[in-house]
Specification:
Elements lengths: L3 H12 L7 E3 L1 H7 L4 E4 L9 H15 L5 E4 L3 H12 L4 E5 L5 H9 L3 E4 L4 H15 L2 E2 L6 H15 L7 E5 L4 H13 L4 E7 L4 H8 L24 H8 L3 E4 L1 H15 L9 H9 L8 E5 L6 H7 L2
Parallel strand pairs: 2-10, 3-4, 3-6, 4-5, 7-8, 7-10, 8-9
Antiparallel strand pairs: 1-2
Length: 316
């Protein structure tokens, strides 16, 4: 487990670049869902995604280790953008490996940060194999999107902001891909000794963490299919897995249709936009049913880098 000192130190790193993100009462969503819904909006970080937290903390950790060269990562988009942003802030080269058909809006944002882009395959796992190859060939430092302690520590700062807000919530609901964000939140809640249940939501077509928990060990999928590119991880994080197993209320599958419905509801009730991966927690809250919903949940809205095509689909 991470200690509170580790997460506090990570928060200092993150705070040097942007303030705590908003935690707001969603009045109209609360009326619709018959519970007091609070939204943790990591859609308003400098790059409109929570991923910047882990990337900044990892970059700081590399400096403490004395590594001064470039970095490499693999990503479906948001993590690559985070690494590119953090590398630019630290005057480092960033090489971002992406699937061939990555979200074009995210690709453009990564390019705007001056990163070198490489492409391979149909999903994150294919891009990661290329990143590993470049790490060895060019002496770059790997920044894994979720299976890395400093990255998870960075994501834990989101949980710490919720814990330290003073809000007496009874649950936090968050999307799950490889598991870095939910593991970080769970660690922050655990060290605070607060009785807050952590619920994860993962796309049915990319349910590596759900299957891992069912099997009792990290599992890898042969293929994935989901509109939530940010949660499209074929394998569960080996570091995150035991944290999620021991310190959360579990991870539940949600469908792509439920993600789209959550996006439409968020837009209709609160006039807010989020990408499918950022909507998984809300989709789960909607699917729980009125009798089973927490009394005062915090829903993590983790990203807003939605493609034009997906936004059109969501608005239908």
């Amino acid at each position: 487990m991470l200690g509170r000192h580790d997460i506090e130190a990570a928060r200092t790193v993150v705070r040097a670049h942007f303030p705590p993100t908003p935690l707001i009462l969603a009045q109209r969503l609360s009326e619709t869902l018959k519970c007091e819904v609070w939204l943790k909006l990591d859609t308003v970080t400098p790059i409109r995604t929570f991923k910047i937290r882990g990337a900044l903390v990892k970059m700081h950790a590399l400096e403490l280790e004395g590594h001064e060269g470039g970095v490499v990562t693999a990503s479906a988009g948001n993590h690559g953008l985070a690494v590119a942003w953090a590398a630019r802030a630290h005057r480092r080269l960033a090489v971002v490996c992406l699937p061939e058909h990555a979200n074009p809006q995210k690709v453009a944002l990564i390019q705007a940060q001056g990163a070198e882009i490489q492409r391979r395959g149909s999903d994150f796992q294919d891009a990661y194999q290329l990143a590993k190859q470049l790490e060895a060939e060019r002496g770059l430092a790997m920044v894994h999107p979720y299976d890395d302690v400093p990255v998870i520590c960075g994501q834990a700062t989101l949980g710490l902001e919720v814990v330290d807000s003073g809000l007496e919530c009874d649950a936090i609901l968050v999307g799950v891909g490889g598991g870095g964000l939910i593991a970080g939140i769970a660690e922050a809640v655990a060290v605070s000794r607060r009785s807050i249940k952590i619920y994860g939501a993962q796309p049915r077509g990319a349910d590596s963490m759900v299957r891992s928990l069912e099997r009792g060990e990290p599992a890898m999928l042969e293929k994935t299919t989901t509109i939530a590119d940010g949660l499209n991880a074929r394998t569960a994080g080996t570091i995150a897995f035991p944290i999620i197993r021991d310190h959360t209320a579990g991870v539940t599958r949600v469908t792509d249709e439920e993600l789209l419905a959550a996006g439409r509801l968020l837009l209709d009730r609160e006039r807010m936009i989020a990408e499918p991966a950022g909507l998984a927690g809300l989709a789960l809250l909607m699917a729980m049913g009125e009798q089973n919903r927490p009394r005062r949940p915090v829903v993590v809205v983790s990203g807003a880098n939605i493609s034009d095509a997906m936004f059109e689909e969501m608005c239908r």
